[in-house]
Amino acid sequence: MIEKATATFEIQAINDLFILLIDQDQGKSVTNAAHRVIDVLEKLVPEGIGHRKVYYKDTMGRIDQLKVKNRRFDGFAPCSESQQRTIIEMKGGDCLVCGEYEKDLINGFCQECQKEHGTLIL
Ligand SMILES: [Zn+2]
Q: Separation of 77 CA from ligand 1 center, angstroms?
């Protein structure tokens, strides 16, 4: 059973380099949500976040980095315009459950795992 939390972010992309989250604008404080999301990601991602960078796209379409230190949220950092352009295009990654590559991740899950486990809410 996968732990569920208040809907705040969705996972759009995950790869060896970074994780891209989309802010769902549920009216929660972004800072509090960020702490929570990093905690959940640490448990959810096989082997943890590790050295991956974590980015989130806000409702205005702007991307910032969620810094992680000692497996905890450690503040926000802005991304350059060129980083934003690169990251914003990224989609897909390895399913968090089965590890198979999926180009249209459903919040971190492939189609099959989404059917089986439902939709993950961070
Ligand atoms: Zn899967």
A: 31
pTM (two decimals): 0.83
Q: How far is the CA of 93 from the centre of ligand 1 (A)?
A: 10
The terminus-to-terminus CA distance of the chain in angstroms comes to: 14
Structure tokens at 78: 């802005």
Q: Concatenated DSSP letters for 48-112? A: -STT-EEEEE-TTS-EEEEEEETTEEEEEEE--HHHHHHHHT--EEE-TTT--EESS-BTTB-HH
Domain boundaries, the chain: 9-117
| pLDDT for position 6 | 55
Cα(26) to ligand 1 centroid in Å equals 26
Kindly report, residue by residue over 97-108, the tens digit of the pLDDT.
Answer: 999 999 999 889
